[in-house]
Amino acid sequence: MTSLPSSSIRDLRQLGRPKSVALRKLRERVIVGTLALAATFTILVTTTIIVVLARETIGFFEFPDVSLGEFFGSTQWNPLLGSEKHFGVWPLIAGTLLVTVIAASFALPVGLISAVYLSEYASPRVRAAIKPALEILAGIPTVVYGFFALTLITPLLQKISPAFGSYNAMSAGLATGIMILPIVCSLSEDALRAVPRSLRDGAFALGGTRFDVSVKVVVPAALSGIVAAFLLAITRAIGETMIVALAAGGIAQITANPAEQVQTMTAYMVQIFLGDAPATGVEYKSSYAVAAMLFVMTFGLTMVGQWVLHRFREEYD
Amino acid sequence: MSTPRSASQRVLSNRVFLWLCLCAINIAVVVLAVLLISIVWQGWGTLSWQFLGNFASRKPSEAGIAASLWGSVWVCTICGVVALPLGIGTAVFLEEFAKKSRFTRIVQTNIMNLAGVPSIVYGILGLTAFARMFGVLGTNADDALSWGDSESLWYVRLPFGSSVLAGGLTLMLVILPVVIISTQEALRSVPGSLRAGAMALGATRWQTVWGITLPAAIPGIMTGAILSMSRAIGESAPLLVLGGILLVFNTPQNLMSDFAILPLQIYNWAGRPQPAFHEIAASAIMVQLVVLLAFNGVAVLIRQKLQKPLQ
Questions:
Q1: Pick from A36, A158, A129: nearest CA to B104
Q2: Which of A15, A25, A35 has the most B C-beta neighbours within 10 Å, making it the best mutation to test the interface with B?
Q3: Cβ of A282 under 8 Å from any chain B Cβ?
């Protein structure tokens, strides 16, 4: 130690400067407090969303030509045109559900089977080739899928059947399905991979084929994770905006015909916020009521997903 | 497994299922290929340096993306500067400091819920909270409190209006849950023995986090941050609610400037009936995808280069 020059000893002492315990505790407290504030911010965000939506929705129902009974009882949504305005939310919900059902019936089976393949069958080399493709699909902005639906899927559908208009639910639904496919696939795959190897080994030892093992043992064991993945994907499809605003059309109607155009809840909000209506009018306020419906639906689905994940999780430790 | 079947039947069903798997997995790859090819096919002809440097125009041949490209850069920078510290701080608090209490459980559930809220709803929140400040400062834009010259870099006004600052903060709300969740996962993957070692040497909790846990988790945190930022670049619905689609003829000058962003420019052109606008929309999509691929590429590089195995 004596060979060290005095200046470097001072540096060393500076570096490991013994702080008083009180000072250190104070610093610790300040930091933890700041971080806790950051965490509280997320609560603030949720609270503000709920308060804003509730306040504006109540404002909407205070208009004389609107009532809660009509909102949930009428099947006509006609807020902008015509002499008589109608605010029955069901056509918007029906449009949203039609697009979501089309998207889900494409993406859920394809996504799950892809996940089973990636987790149970694929060699590491095949995985390394396919995973980046899925990651790129997941990163593509939804407006690009909307453009894709409008300029490629719709013309293809029109070649198949002339019944498809230039805006239709099928095209928007398929594009939304492509959008949620990577979500379904990667989350289901995570759930499948979390199933311990011993279960597979046991099933193989009993003489199961790979099909028996993956479909009858691994998939049921991972079911809670798969259902949660499905619910998350459906939530994303319900809330999807740009695809339906571009490709689904603008007529709010209750129909199960995928060749017709529909208006979803999100597409209606886009129409209003693009500036067709004055900011104080009943049409403008109606978009907040629709947003509140959308929020309640997606929030509810997320809660169900969380509940499924915790309630039905199989623990293998 | 209730009905006993012959071995040949089971081998057959195994083979059929493998074919089904190959079909399913190829759908994703084929769709991606078709999408990229069709966009390059449509957009290659109109992509030029001029296209990158021009402003919006009624004529598709003279239109460009200068304003929206720079608008995207401004908005996403603001978004990242706010969302990353806030999100990483929240994740550090939840993983490293908070005890398992009712409060932390509520915060955790709430973050999962926020991740599921449609982005257009965040647009409404941004419009009310940032652009109009709940109307407490008046609803007329001319009444706004302001400091500084409106041409200078330091011009600030309240409420923010449909400015780049309001846009960036709105996008921050959208990606905040994503940042938190990915950071939490990165922190969880740091082995507990590292923390125990630091604590055993007498480090405080914060010293452990700052000196040991965060450096070990940095690759995961950065990968998550980059992927969240690429989400922010492509997000358009909340900003459509915030400001509609504006025709902007200059790049942002300060935090209060009006702005256009690339995805909304694409939306605007794609929604028009003329095919010429579809072509320039495809060109703009090519620019957007190149930026996104660059981001994803950096994320993959970081994952491969920096991730040291920790035992």
A1: A36
A2: A35
A3: no
A-facing residues of B in 24-53 (CB < 8 A) are: 24-25, 27-29, 31-32, 34-35, 38-39, 42
In the block, tokens 């043992």 appear at: A217
Q: Which among B18, B113, B266 is the nearest to A121, CB-wise?
A: B18
Q: Smallest Cβ distance to B42: which of A45, A151, A299?
A: A151
Write out the residue range of the structural domain in which residue A236 sits: 77-311
Closest Cβ–Cβ partner in A136, A144, A239 for B296: A136
Element (H, E) at A87: strand A86-87
CB B123 within 8 A of CB B174: no
Q: Could A266 and B292 be called an inter-chain contact, meaning their C-beta atoms sit closer than 8 Å?
A: no
Which chain B residues are Cβ-neighbours of A121 within 8 angstroms? 18, 21
Whether A76 and A86 have beta carbons less than 8 Å apart is answered as yes
CB contact under 8 A, B90 and A35: yes
Residue at A247 is within a domain: yes
Identity at A37, one-letter amino acid code: L
Helix residue ranges, H only, A74-168 = 90-116, 124-139, 142-148, 154-160
Give how many domains chain A has, as a whole number.
1
CATH annotation of B67-306: 1.10.3720.10
Contact criterion met (CB < 8 Å) for A117 and B42: no
d(CA A240, CA A246): 11
For residue B18, the chain A residues in CB contact (below 8 A) are: 121, 210-211
What does the pLDDT read at residue B45?
86
ipTM of the prediction greater than 0.95, yes or no? no
Interface test with B, best of A60, A143, A151, A236 (most B CBs within 10 A): A143
Torsional class of B8: left (φ above 0), alpha (ψ -120 to 50), beta (otherwise): alpha
Answer whether residue A266 is part of any domain: yes
Q: Does the beta carbon of A15 lie under 8 angstroms from any beta carbon of chain B? A: no
Query: Is A317 within the bounds of a domain?
Result: no
Residue B309 CB coordination number (10 Å): 4
CB atoms within 10 A of CB A30: 11
Instruction: Give the other-Cβ count within 10 Å of A4's Cβ.
Output: 10
Between CA A270 and CA A231 the distance in angstroms is 24
Q: Would the CB atoms of B270 and A110 count as touching at under 8 Å?
A: no
Indicate which CATH number applies to the domain containing A198: 1.10.3720.10
Across chain A, which has 317 residues, the per-10-residue mean pLDDT values are 49 56 85 91 94 92 83 80 78 94 96 94 88 87 94 93 90 96 93 92 92 92 93 95 91 88 92 76 87 94 90 73
- Cα A145 to chain centroid distance, Å, stands at 15
- The pLDDT averaged over each successive group of 10 residues in chain B (311 residues) is 71 91 91 93 88 81 86 93 95 90 89 93 91 72 68 75 90 95 93 92 89 90 89 92 78 82 92 89 93 86 68 44
- Asked whether the whole model's pTM tops 0.95, one would answer no
Does some domain include residue A195?
Answer: yes
